[in-house]
Amino acid sequence: MDPAAIKEEMLSKYPPKVARKRAKQIMINEALENETPEITANVRTIPGIITMRGCTYAGCKGVIMGPTRDIVNITHGPIGCGFYSWLTRRNQTDATAPDAQNYMTYCFSTDMQDKDIIFGGEKKLEAAIQEAYDLFHPKGICVFATCPVGLIGDDIHAVAAKMKKKFGDCNVFAFSCEGYKGVSQSAGHHIANNQVFRHLVGAEDEGKPGKYCINLLGEYNIGGDGFEIDRLLNKCGITNNATFSGNSSYDQFASAHTADLNAVMCHRSINYVADMLEVKYGIPWIKVNFIGASAAAKSLRKIAQYFGDQELIERVEEVIAEEMPAVQAVAEEVRPRTEGKTAMLFVGGSRAHHYQELFKELGMKTISAGYEFAHRDDYEGRHVLPGLKVDADSRNIEELEVEADEALYSPRKSEEELKALAESGLDFKSYDGMIPDMDEKTMVIDDLNQYEAEKMVEMLKPDIFCAGIKEKFSIQKLGIPMKQLHSYDSGGPYAGFKGAINFYREIDRLVNSKVWGYMKAPWQENPELSATYVWE
Amino acid sequence: MLLRHTPQEITERHALTINPAKTCQPIGAMYAALGVHGCLPHSHGSQGCCAYHRSALTRHYKEPISAGTSSFTEGASVFGGQANLLQAIDNMFTVYEPEVVAVHTTCLSETIGDDLPQIIDKATKDGKIPKGKHVIYANTPSYVGSHVTGFSNMVKGMAMKAETTGVKNGKVNVIPGWVEPADMEEIKRLSGLIGVDIILFPDTSGILNGPLSGEYKMFPEGGTTMAELQSAGDSIGTLALGEWCSADGARYLDTNNKVPCRVLDMPIGLMATDRFVDAMRIIAGVSVPEELSHERGQLVDIISDMHQYFFHKKVALAGDPDQLISMVEFLVSIDMCPTHVVSGTPGKAFAKRIRELTAGLPYEVNVKCDQTADMFLLHQWIKNEPVDLLIGNSYLKYIARDEDIPLVRWGFPILDRQGHQYFPTVGYKGGIRLLEKILNALLDRKDRDDPEQSFELVM
């Protein structure tokens, strides 16, 4: 079907104002070399249009701070927000060390009541922080604002500062992540990361020992992805000092400034932290992607190239050579059953791009993709950054002004070294986005909604559709297998080499499941009676 | 240990809720609204509320949950959400073509004081609500009550659509409370057996336990129709099954439409089901069919068959008031010992009722139902007085694992097992299923723990 006709058909049902707005967020890919068409992204969701997006609180408390095990996260607000973000993301954590603290299994809330809304909730918050401290004596307590907190004007930062001073041995800080801020989760990522940078990074001068020491930014250890990446890094002799924020702990954030390279997985949720770590501490950053076997191999090679040590470069090649045969064996086994099939991916701020790698390795074509909460640079590449207009919604999200730290700034590579590395093909601070990697005439759709999803599936009949839990069953009712790429449907890991094997097998299972052949009963297939039993 | 920081020593908390045994009002309003035919729930707040509620309901029911949101921005939060709601109503009726939109508020829109009746009135005057279509609403600030009261408030919103023509329709309104789609189906089956024509509202059967057929219907066949809701004002009476979830709607019909009501317990377990069947029989003036007496007899039979394994086993429960009241009565009736009971839903009458139901037991039951009646406290109680069985939602599995206690999953939300949408726990047949689940949990544990010398084939 002609993509222009599909787009027109999708827009035809909308009221004119909605159609005009959505038209700019639905793009037919006509990417040419060095030139990608413009898409509108990171703009307001239209009221009443059933969106996939969540809120700023979800991005802040749920996504960024959720995976840190030894901080007590207190939601300041009515009970719901804390309840819904309690263990519902599949961030795995390793708290097996004998003295390890792990509060991820707990939900802490001030459970605000109407009297707190009327008279203010600061006193209750203060008491809640005190009760948490008395019960657990954690290293850190974080406070998260929900919608009414901003409206009634509780000064959560003042309460946090007061309690931090009072305790002396517990870092208390707060996040103004009210759900109505920004246009999606993305604003919450930013608010969370800013506060981590401000209140944690740089507090601990002892990082992990190791010759090749990196931080992995924007990896959340869903289904154990981070564990698989750590396994590979360890095997290569690379130290992962701190992951932001999968399987993370307080001390790892605090010593993040001691690493020598930042490797960025999810560009959307954290690229600004990479920038700030470079400006303040002199740590360069590169974009990596461990989703897909060849992408994982490429990422390991990039890290080795950065350190430039022959020993490491060789070790990385050995590891790849050791790991690849098993991956290729499974790919070859599965491929006859997946080759030529089609996929649609609408998820997150990086996964809709990264997972195209895995589908490519299965011989599957991504015919349409888009992000839930990404910005234009995630679609078109970082070259569009200088031209991005800051609208009213983005202006409300704080941008930290960062300068080189007087004591701790130390450029890991000289200007000449960086230039030489760049000339040898290692791109720093670079991300080209999703669009250049997609075929011509594919459709790129930002903030896809339920109606458009249904239309796309009906018209293009993909063999698999990827999004989140809210979309799962409306797609599957249409008889199309749906793979959750937020939670992985209890599966994973899908990162690295073992992850690639898991994913190949999972997609094979899904697209070839017998169940999709059971939609119609025999009498529905052949409603006309053509014979009758002759029972004497 | 997964809950390694929970101390045995109980210290009083006043401000901090830990591991809540409740969630907020709007999700209850959303679930209730899904039980109206052709209804699209709408969350008037920031889009995260709607995303969270849809996700939680989807994870529990394993079915598509469609709902709109007003997608508040900072500007709307300052200047009011009227423009957002008007635009949302227009967009929803145009794009999704529902029969009904059911709007509920959130802590955000309540804090800024958005006036739903006024905005809906404006939408009507502006022609944003197509002719023959409806908007119902409920005020559900998250800082009052719990998911249970949110459900109740939306039920009341449905009752507000009832009309009184003066000519009785011969039907009985039944408000089932927040139970599973299969439970609603079972209530309809029981009523049919007794021969009472009922208007069940809400009714999520057929909507949240639908088939897979290659077709997606945003509005499946099931649900209480608008015509039925309107006709509820002409019914001969209303049975509210559960004080917390259902009574307000029933009392509204009593006061405003002169439809008399009776509030019963949810028909879970032998005695509560007996009272429900008896009430239906009296209302309809019929005798209970033999078939139903037979079902009852089967439940009694099972109780006697299994009794030795239930006798004096201690149970800890977390959940919602209406369910817990009936369940505690059921457990006492089979000589089990409810020992610790928490519900985050406020309401002093709950604790009083649980104490009454357990008054004949040789010990005092631990029961709490306020802000700090949470699973953290329940866990501490268990550490101080261990139990043989846990009954409640999936979050209890963390206590179950740490303390090595068998768990029967029952209530909301169940996120890690399936089948609850399809098999009722109300009525006599539901009672049989509950007992089967309890017995299996206890005997699986016995089989696991018995030493080889006394491991038994026949039990």
Write the layout of secondary structure elements.
The complex is a heterodimer of chains A (536) and B (459).
Chain A: H1 3-11, H2 16-25, E1 26-28, H3 56-65, E2 71-76, H4 79-84, E3 108-109, H5 114-119, H6 122-136, E4 140-145, H7 147-152, H8 156-167, E5 171-175, H9 185-199, E6 212-219, H10 225-236, E7 238-245, H11 250-254, E8 261-264, H12 267-281, E9 285-287, H13 293-307, H14 310-338, E10 342-346, H15 351-361, E11 365-370, H16 376-380, H17 392-395, H18 415-423, E12 443-445, H19 450-460, E13 464-467, H20 469-477, E14 482-484, H21 496-511, H22 522-525
Parallel strand pairs in A: 2-3, 2-4, 4-5, 6-7, 6-8, 8-9, 10-11, 10-13, 11-12, 13-14
Antiparallel strand pairs in A: 1-12
Chain B: E1 17-18, H1 25-33, E2 39-44, H2 47-61, E3 68-69, H3 74-79, H4 82-95, E4 100-105, H5 107-111, H6 116-125, E5 134-138, H7 147-159, E6 172-175, H8 181-194, E7 198-200, H9 226-231, E8 237-241, H10 243-257, E9 261-264, H11 270-284, H12 290-310, E10 314-318, H13 321-333, E11 337-342, H14 348-357, E12 366-368, H15 375-384, E13 389-392, H16 397-403, E14 407-409, H17 427-449
Parallel strand pairs in B: 2-3, 2-4, 4-5, 6-7, 6-8, 8-9, 10-11, 10-13, 11-12, 13-14
Helix pairs in contact in B: 1-2, 1-7, 4-6, 7-10, 12-17, 13-14
